[in-house]
Amino acid sequence: MKNLKFFIAVFLVGLTTSNALAQSKTKMVGGAEMYPSKNIVENAVNSQDHTTLVAAVKAAGLVDVLAGEGPFTVFAPTNAAFEKLPEGTVATLLKDENKKQLQTILTYHVLAGDYKAKDIMKAIKAGNGTATFTTVSGGKLMAMMDGDAVKVKDENGNVATVTIADVNQSNGVIHVIDTVLLPGK
Fold first, then answer.
1. For a Cys-Cys bond, which of 30, 89, 139, 160 suits 48, CB 3.0-4.6 Å?
2. In the beta sheet, which residues pair with residue 111?
3. For residue 177, which of 61, 41, 74, 43 has the smallest C-alpha distance?
4. Which regions of the chain does DSSP assign to beta strands (E)?
5. CB 107 within 8 A of CB 137
């Protein structure tokens, strides 16, 4: 009986340790390791693929928010995603007089809560193929599957593909996307 209790105890410690290790693994994004012990901003500033997003977050005055306790789920558009916008759009949004609009667009990419890919896919399945999420800006995003890929559609019909899922942060999770999502007008 003592051996059985000892075996169970060792087994449970092993499960706990392997689960903690699985959750603490880093992912590479934009040529940089994303450390689960760092917050969203601390990691994002190191990604070469997210320099436009980081500049926008700074211009919008959202650094302290996204470095805060959270948890947050951020759909993080790459530089290439921003380049798909009409010419001059990013430069215009980064101007001080457009700060409120920029804040709205950026917070449209954020959900309150920690939604891992499995949580989003579970919601899609429960919704018979689609799941609707309310963003921090108050807008709606619709998630769906396209084969094995998670897609996110904005209120204007623009569709982003999650290219890197579950980049764990100390205050939430980032899902890298290939298209900037825009709130409805």
1. 30
2. 73
3. 74
4. 27-29, 32-34, 72-77, 110-112, 130-134, 140-146, 149-153, 159-169, 172-177
5. yes
- Give 3-state DSSP helix, strand, coil % of the chain, rounded to 5: 40, 25, 30
Q: Which of 120, 146, 145 is nearest to 132 (CA)?
A: 120
- pTM for the complete prediction? 0.85
3-class secondary structure, 20 = helix
Report the pLDDT averaged over residues 130-137.
97
Residue-level length of the chain: 185
Q: In the structure encoding, which two tokens stand for residue 23, read together?
A: 């959750």
Q: Poorest-confidence range of 25-29, 126-130, 165-169?
A: 25-29
Token pair in block for residue 47 = 């990604």
pLDDT over 90, % of the chain: 70
More confident site: 13 or 147:
147
